[in-house]
Structure formats: structure tokens, C-alpha cells
Amino acid sequence: MVPTYNEHENIQELVYRTEKVLWNNGFEGSILIVDDNSPDGTGKIAEELSRRYGNIKVIHRPNKSGIGSAYRRGFQTVLENAYAEIVIQMDGDLSHTPESIPALVEKLSEGFDIVVGSRYIDGGSIKGWPVQRWLISAVANFFARHLLGLNTIDLTSGFRAYHSDALKLLDLSQIRSDNYAFQVELLYCCANAGFKVQEVPIRFTQRSNGKSKLGKLSIIEFVETIIKLSFDRFLRRRKLA
What we know:
By secondary structure, this protein is an alpha/beta fold. The protein has one domain: Spore Coat Polysaccharide Biosynthesis Protein SpsA, Chain A. 45% of the residues lie in helices and 15% in strands. The protein has a four-stranded mixed sheet, with helices on both faces. Strands 1-2-3 form a three-stranded parallel sheet, with helices on both faces. Strands 6-9 form a two-stranded parallel ribbon. Helix 5 (131-148) packs parallel to helix 8 and helix 7 runs parallel beside helix 8 (216-240). The longest helix has 25 residues, at 216-240. The model has no long low-confidence stretch (mean pLDDT 92).
């Protein structure tokens, strides 16, 4: 599942490499692209790729509504149509390498419900980020992890694999975040549901084409979400006391 907005420079290579991974590993899989009416024509290119490959579905949303809401829509579509036993989410800018998909799938087979592609555990790395961007991410993960009592190191990673049975047990409509805070809120809900989460190292590469979608509003929403979830955690612990 790939959310897109203005990724016309990346979407063809991403699809080609993902299809190659599916073929080479004997995976029977599909690609779901959720496009937010990209003015650069990403949605049109996605439709052309759908006709070419036959295993690609494209959801066209009327406007840019945030990566979190795109994931929520994608998950709901997958679950409602019983598309797959495993759902993999990844960014559309080639910062996540499709060649890492088998490592996530293999870890799921060991009995985990969710596998997170992690930049911050041993073996993981980030290529091309300026120091400021790295500091923002590292600090955000540190505070979110400790305030929410989560064991996952890379809470904000958007490269993940889920067992669909686990996703079915979540009420996705209750996850309110529309931007990057969605990643943390979803893991928080998974932890409260008792799901088993594991991380595998990935190499994250800064996009070479297009512009990052991380802006001030996304950062503000992230902070607001962490505060809200921290309060929720406090209330949960108080009930158990």
C-alpha cells in the first residue's frame, strides 16, 4: 500500500522494483496506490501502470488529506475486500527500498503481528538527511517512546508489514491523526491490543526526486497527538491501579 502525492518522478520505478520483488520471491501480491489528486499527474501514471501490470489498484481521493488518512483509507479497502493476509505499507518516494520487503515478511512468519522497518536499531541507517532533520526525528521518537511506554525504537517509520488478522481487530476509525503522527498512534493502539511488534533494520534513503511533505503543521499535529496519547495512557494506568 503506497500513498502518493506528486510522485510522478518516483512511482514508475517504485512499481517496477516492487513487482520484481514479488516475482522473484514467489509472492502473490497486489499494489494499492492511494493518490490524493496529485497535480503532477501521479494518479494518471498509476492508472497506466495498473493497466500494464494487472495487479495494481488505484484509489483516487479528491484532495490532499494527509498521509495518515491515506493509510487509513488503504487499510479499510484492503480489509473490506479481503485482499491479502499480509499488508505492507511504504512511502512512494523510494526512501523505502522494495528489496527489503522479504525481510519484513520473513519476520512476520516468526509469529509477530507487526514488523517495523527500523532506521534506528543495529544495522539500520539513514542516508542523505541533514543533521536538523535527523535530530527532529530522533528527538520525536525518543519522547514518544518514553511518554507512551512503547518498546519500538523507530515509532515514526512508514515501512511496515502487518498481519491482516491483527488489523481487523483495530477500530481504525478511532485513529484520528491525518499526518505522520498516524504512525505512532497506530502502534500505540496495537500495543494496547497486545499485538507482538518486532523491528528489522532498513536503510532509509532521502528522496532524490520531488519534495518532502513534512511541514510545520505535521510537526504540530505530532506534538498534539503525543500529548493526547500520553493523557490516555495516564487514564489507563489509573484505572488499573
